[in-house]
Amino acid sequence: MANIKPKIRVPKTAKVGDVIKIKTLISHPMESGIRKNKKTGELIPRDIINHFEARFEDEAFFSADMHPAISADPYFAFYFKVPGPGTFSFTWNDDKGNKWSLKQSLLIA
């Protein structure tokens, strides 16, 4: 598969109690499993990002299970109320068993 790189946008600093917006994007072709190869007529195997999870200090606060109808390059934006300093971790899993993870620390201003 092509070089897949997830991207995240999280503020570097915030105040305790702030509500911050987090944005995530992963470039992935998201093959539904219902398209056919134009040359051979065979079905192209399904390969989608099937699960995404966001954690803060190892506690999950946002997750999504995806299905074939989702578009390529899934994008999520969500909000988080800052309890204090810590580390976010984001994980994407696909049907082929691939897993991508990113981490980012949040400092208190």
N- and C-termini, Cα separation: 40 Å
Shape annotation: elongated
What does the main sheet amount to? 5 strands, mixed
**Rounded average pLDDT:** 94
The low-confidence runs, each spanning 5 or more residues with pLDDT under 50, are none
Quote the beta fraction.
Answer: over 45%
Rounded to an integer, what's the Rg over CA atoms?
Answer: 17 Å
What is the name of the CATH superfamily? Immunoglobulins
Order of helices and strands: EEEEEEEE
The CATH topology label is: Immunoglobulin-like
CATH class: Mainly Beta
Backbone structural class: mainly beta
CATH architecture, please?
Answer: Sandwich
Tally of separate helices: 0
Describe this structure in words.
The strands form 2 sheets. This protein has a 5-stranded mixed beta sheet, with no helix packed on it. The chain has a 3-stranded antiparallel beta sheet with strand order 1-3-6, with no helix packed on it. It is elongated. The protein contains no helices and 8 strands. It is mainly β. The chain has strands at residues 6-9, 13-14, 19-26, 49-56, 59-65, 75-81, 86-94, 99-108. Helices cover 0% and strands 50% of the residues.
List the helices and strands and how they pair.
Elements: E1 6-9, E2 13-14, E3 19-26, E4 49-56, E5 59-65, E6 75-81, E7 86-94, E8 99-108
Parallel strand pairs: 2-8
Antiparallel strand pairs: 1-3, 3-6, 4-5, 4-7, 7-8
Give me a quick take on this structure.
This protein is mainly beta. The protein has strands spanning 6-9, 13-14, 19-26, 49-56, 59-65, 75-81, 86-94, 99-108.
